[in-house]
Fold this sequence. Notes:
Order of helices and strands: HHHHHHHEEHHEEHHEEE
Structural class: alpha/beta
Shape: globular
Distance between the termini: 41 Å
Largest sheet: 5 strands, mixed
Amino acid sequence: MGRLATILFAHKLGTSLEPECKMYRLAADIFNDTAMVLDCLSPALPKIPRVALLSFSSVLRALCGVAAGSSKASLSAHFAKRGNLAELNAKDSSQETVISLMGMLVGSIVISHVSSTTATWSCLIMLLSIHLATNHAAVRAISMHSLNRQRANIVLSNMIDDKKVLTPEEVSIQERIFEWDGVLRWRGSKPFAKARIGVSVQSFLGSMSPAHKVTGAIRDEDLILQRIVKIFSGEEYLLWYDAHHKMASIVLKVQASSKAQLKAWGLGLWAAHRFQNEYPTGATTEKVMHLLKSTLTDLSSQWDDSIERIKAAGWDTDIASLETAPGTRIQLHVEVASTKSNTIQA
């Protein structure tokens, strides 16, 4: 069970491990401590439930191994400021050895004074609580310099509102360790919409018009896709905001850079925020189209200066950390026919 869980976990969530390394570092400790509690509970259960409980415990340990190993690699690269990754890992291993030896020494002293079931469980819960609390504090103290979805929300919303770019240290105070994937928040507010980046063309079209229940075909009677391609002809992405589901969908072109991905996310965030304020009860396709066009114009007019200010604040804009699932890229070829009608091939 544990080996199978390792393969499935890495396949399903492998892309999100680096952008959300702080979350998975703490989640690994939660998985491991939960598995430890389940192992302690297993002797009190009958044979069949005990096997199921121990199997689940092995799954949690497998998840801990994947999450801890990958997040540790990402965090080690973050702390290796001078490219001294080997030195950092060597010192980290030495530190772990010292801590393990100290733990064995203290454990040998404590175990001689713990004999009853109540005392055993009290010590276990207390030590696990201390373990999780200290790890939570340690993870919160880390100031990552890459812009994942949550940090991009915080930085871009404050920059648009106050014209001020927050530093990684300021953002680390505001960001949550566990955050819903893809939610859009404006300056730490409640989630008001969601966004997806790197979606497929089929998913992108499905957000514009409902698919046929039997064939799955999508009819674009309003030529939304053609108009979106025209609006974003100078960009490295396409974006559409589904007003009904409050979902911004972003398709990336093959040449999309990390800065273009950040701009696309910022556009989706700002457009969703404007939509919430201007059309709280909903809007027609024409109004959504106008909103996207005007928001793109406003963002593009200040983007070159904004990206320089973001870099000056200490953010690494060359790292693409917005995709948390395997994404797709498209290549567009726009052909102009003699009848002046456009044919779009993706």
